[in-house]
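$ run holo --ligand "S-adenosyl-L-homocysteine" --emit tokens
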Amino acid sequence: MEDTFKHKGLRKKLVDEIRAKGISDEQVLQAMNSVPRHLFMDNSFIGFAYVDKAFPISSGQTISQPYTVAFQTEALQVKRTDKVLEVGTGSGYQAAVLCEMGVSLFTIERQRSLYDFARILLPKLGYHPQFFYGDGYLGLPTYGPFDKIIVTAGADTVPLKLKEQLVIGGRMVIPVGNRQHQVMKIILRINENDYSEQEVGNFVFVPMLPGLADQNKDHQ
Ligand code: SAH
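-- output --
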């Protein structure tokens, strides 16, 4: 669990690189400068933790590219008082960045091994989101509504259940498309029944997976 000067130096370089690619929210950049990304990856990948690339974690999943994490987090426009739902805990890295920004985070993962990994790792680093094992397509109806929702796997459509779990004025950032590529969408809830939708760029995420039979019990 070491975070050496070398790691910190590499991390600062990475953050500078992300800033140069167009991310300007200093709060996001500062959070990414603080979270030790190398601790979220297998040991064999430690040398790659501070290059701007996605990398395989376990269960056929990936830790998102740092630029993508920065882009989605910036697009989410979080405030410290926000209640945020993340779909796709994965390595827990995006969750750590959001916790570092002071939000109250609920994160849901449909693969048991990843859920187990993140809920042990994050508290060790001082991050305390609420972890859920279940199908993110359904969200967390009993814990909502949320000020912000971030989906970190590629969805085929914007799930209605997630839209309905936004507060009025709430915002969701979600990649929507097929297995090869997705468009990042920002959904705003205008009132009880109306939403606006904006497209802000092309990305490649691992696809969202359907839920499992033993999930969705909506508990930790
Ligand atoms: N936020 C993660 C990115 C992980 S990749 C990080 O920072 O590392 C996407 C994750 O979404 C994977 O862990 C995958 O298992 C999860 N996922 C896919 N379909 C899901 C679903 N229906 N509900 C919840 N999580 C899902």
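-- notes --
The pocket of S-adenosyl-L-homocysteine is lined by residues 61-64, 87-88, 90-91, 93-94, 108-111, 114, 135-137, 152-153, 206, 208-209, 211 (CB under 6 Å).
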